[in-house]
Design brief:
Layout (H helix, E strand, L loop, with lengths): L2 H15 L6 H17 L4 H15 L2 H4 L4 H17 L15 E6 L6 H15 L4 E5 L7 H12 L2 E2 L8 H14 L4 E5 L8 H14 L3 E7 L4 H14 L3 E5 L8 H10 L3 E5 L7 E3 L2 H8 L5 H11 L2 H12 L5 H13 L3 H6 L5 H6 L5 H14 L3 H5 L6 H11 L3 H41 L17
Parallel strand pairs: 1-4, 1-5, 2-3, 2-4, 5-6, 6-7
Antiparallel strand pairs: 7-8
Amino acid sequence: MFESLSNRLATTFDRLRGRGALSETEVLEAMREVRLALLEADVALPVVKEFVTKVRDRAVGAEVLRSVTPGQQVVKIVNDVLIESLGGEGAVPLNLSAAAPVPILMVGLQGSGKTTTAGKIGLMLRLRERRRILLASLDTQRPAAQLQLAQLAERAGVNSLPIVAGQTPVQIAHRAMETGRREGFDIVILDTAGRLSIDEVLMDEVRAIRDATHPAETLLVVDAMTGQDAVNTARAFNDAVGVTGIVMTRMDGDARGGAALSMRSITGAPIKLTGSGEKLDALEPFHPERVASRILGMGDIVGLVERASETIDREDAEKLAARMAKGKFDLEDYASQLRQITKMGSLSGIMGMLPGMGKIKEQLAGANLDNTILKRQAAIIGSMTVKERRDPDIIKASRKKRIASGSGVTVQEVNQLLKQFDQMTTVMKRMNKMGQKGMMRGGLASLMGQMGGPGGPGGGRPGGRRPF
């Protein structure tokens, strides 16, 4: 989402880092670049002005201009102000401290992903908080809205309020809260109707539901892809009914990201959750410091580790580690790894969480990594027999033609996969041969020496491999 802004800022900061000292004029010129980058990213103008003023006031101080690394100091200041603009350090959790059943009111325009988000929150609270959840659709505008939420509730493993024809939204809200109290639910999620645009009828309806239920949270769901429209929507809902938190959907899209940077300043309410994709588990807490780090090309290693721990099957990973320790690794294991990577999300998304990958992502943009490489490699392995996957050495010319035909690829692509797999197994065998002590003594340099890297056979140092 923030790629355009990230790339623009990276270019500006690279110029600053390349200079040993900075004058006030150079800092001000860099601030003009930052201002343009934010405006191009669709950040609201008042937010841009406040942001640039804060950075400029701190960056032209003596502690920066006289610093040993003034360029890095400016980047740190921008990072700090980004975090402030996004809401400060740490994720803001949902307020669940009210007496049960805790009402959560979902508001927003039609098409923002509000109903799907209600289902995602239900699943998240059931799994992470171990709460009993009741979903209730108050949308009497769309005929299929209540049925849609009931289906989402079933998929999420939570309860939904039975549909009673002819009731008004306020009557449904009362019935939902009564059901919640009577049947011992911890949380009632109230999904209100949306409109294609903001109108007074919508606001009156939401106000009436709010006054009837006194929600602990009023969550505004906005589509990050709509840019400034999302900011205008947030302002209108906040002025009319008050908003305690924001959920931004479609954060995996190619929008410029300005809405996220504008929300806290415009509404005073924090972004609490972000959604990426249609899957019910694609909902995450919003961490301002991690988003700021990603915008500045510093990655989000903590987020990557958390995602891996949630998606990777620990038992499978331990079995694979044991097989690798014994020098056993076949194409079935490789296929298992491909499936684990796919569970973690798109390759471009994973790369965006690694430090310094912005420029590499840009260079690989035309390679269509997400839609091509993993699917093709999985298809190739899927076209092999069990015997071939366990013993790739038996795959000769005729077998390669059959596998290529069965997976819809060329023989050259089959050869490429087998070559990559052979290289992986070679590395694993050499790591096992070196052992833990050998790896600790020689580290990566010794491993590279064995593989023919710099200092090894065929590397930059003639006359043999580097000693361990």
